[in-house]
User: Fold this.
Amino acid sequence: MSPPSDSSGSAVVGDLAEYSPNERRILLELAHRSIDTALAAEQIDFTAPTEHLAQPRGAFTTLHLFGALRGCIGYVLPTGSLYQAVAETARAAAFDDPRFQPVTEDEAPYLKIEISVLSVPRPISAEQVEVGRHGLIVSAGMRRGLLLPQVPVEWDWDRETFLSQTCVKAGLPPDAWLRGAEIQAFTAEVFGEE
Assistant:
């Protein structure tokens, strides 16, 4: 089941949309500008243009290049304004994701950006996890793994597979969620470019 979309191709994973089409456009443009200014070794202004975008929120920025994942970095918990979080995570996804080489000037114009604005994570039982609504954090000891709510939808996973894959992301056995690992869930408003 796919998450609901609005007319701009944005997906709302979890609850109703909180951000207007104009706010979404501002954040997507900010993510591109943040990457471009980093390539030019310039600074970017973190002053949010609206009170709503100045609110503290966790966020992830995901980059795609010609349909393939090119980077994804984020903050689970708020570290500053949403506006600043998007600017910082866009740069980090482009240049600091250890799975990829840094984005080049030649690639930057072709990047497609997706932003996930997160709610605060809360403890949840495995039975309460809803695919297409919840993102998950599974932790045990010093290990922690996170998967955004759109991931199980994209891979057509059921709840058990989603829980197991989040454990694997944490470097835990796939069944750690059955053996006492802590499970937390969050929702996300996800929007991006086609």
Observations:
- The CA atoms of residues 167 and 176 lie 6 Å apart.
- The longest strand covers residues 58-65.
- The mean pLDDT is 91.
- Residues 21-39 form the longest helix (19 residues).
